[in-house]
Amino acid sequence: MTLTVREALLAFRRAPLLSALSVTTIAFSLFVLGLFGLVAVNLRQALRGVAERVEIVAYLLPGTPIETVLLGEQDIEAFPEVASAAHISEDSALARARRELVEFRDLLRELERNPLPASIEVKLKPGYQDATNVNAVAERLRGFGFVDDVRFGRDWVEKLDKLRRLAAAVGVVVGAAFATVAVIIIGTTIRMAVLQRSREIAIMRLVGATDGFIRRPFLLQGALKGLLGGLVAIGLSYAAYALINRFLIESSFFTVTQALGIVVFGTVIGLMGSLLSVGRHLRRV
Amino acid sequence: MIKFTNVFKTYAKGGLALKDVSFHIAKGEFAFLTGHSGAGKSTVLKLVYADERPTSGAVRVSGFTVADLPPRDVPHLRRRLGIVFQDFRLLEDRTAEENVAFALEVTGARRSAIPARVMRVLTQVGLAAKAGAYPRELSGGEQQRVAIARALVNEPQVLLADEPTGNLDERATRGVFQLLRDINASGTAVVMATHDLEMVRSAPYRVIELQEGAVVYDSAVDEPTAGDAQA
Asked: What CATH number matches the domain at B1-80+156-231, 3.30.1490.20, 3.40.50.300, 3.40.50.10320, 3.40.50.360?
């Protein structure tokens, strides 16, 4: 074991340029993947923000007794899809209109009778904010006797749905493509390191080294390169994030788990890349 | 020790390399393998260290049967052999001492024992003073001595030498040959492939001559009284 560690570290010292080059290559291919990840994370967050505004409004028949409304509100809140249901009385609807619709303030002040109906505003839980669930909830709301009309931005919800599906598909395809490119580049880099030492491998075999003995330092070295590359990639991504945040738009960075995921991904690819190229090399010679 | 019985070897693209080769080299023997380039000397040695497998026939090397030796046992066969090449095959980025120690390390030798064993073989080949030198700082003869030290450090039963003096000047050649004789005198069998007939004639050792892959002369068989006494 100590010999494995020593040989792996010696390889860094004996070929510092090639080692630095591999780490840099790995770092940049993971950085590209990381940048894409940042875009994906922020896009998802933005979409979630939009989805949170999905709201169904059930307008109530005038003169519905408040007890009925409150009972209905409780029923609605018990729906599995529903996050919250809030009763807005005629008066508070008018107050809100006065507050929010400044342009019509004079008009609203001169009203003799409040034209606005009472309503129940329903918000859905995350994961239920899509067209199917919105329609289902709206349909059930219509079933209440005291509900006059149910409104929600049908087109808008459907567009949001489409956008979300598109984002998910693009995320998977482009993410997979970037990940594949990273895997190929890292694999090639590791392969170069193996080929550079093919003479050494041949000599090791002549003096009676087992394949396992030959393989171990390469595996450790590959994993180390992947780990270092991953850490550098996270550093680069953070720098990019800081710059974007400062000069372009406010955005968010990876969670610790996501960042760790990238580092682990790099380490695993480094390890697997070494396993494959050394294995292939050993079988061939 | 090394026993070839009716060995044929065909390379995928190179045609027939060995034709019906049979010989037996005993413990402690010194045997020259001679013949022109391409006669099959290197193929014989490769079969001995299981770098190639016989197409038919049997190759037995210190208890191992090369034809059906599982790949995982090849290293164990090689640890019983010392191998020396014309081009030395030293690791350029390690000192003489590290090159020799490397051969011990790969076999999982006890670490505390390594430096003493390395110095002992380097002393044996006359290079103790240059233990810290890198291959590029050594002459051809000295590099070959390092290679021989590396081959010896695992205390092999047989030393295989493929044209070990092919790249050396006359003086270095004599030195390396004398070293191989000394090694043989201390009990290690030596099989040396060479086309240096002058060297072959200068010593009373067994000679196996190959021509186009076949044994055309074996002093132990053809002239059992001449020269070789140990066969």
From this structure: 3.40.50.300
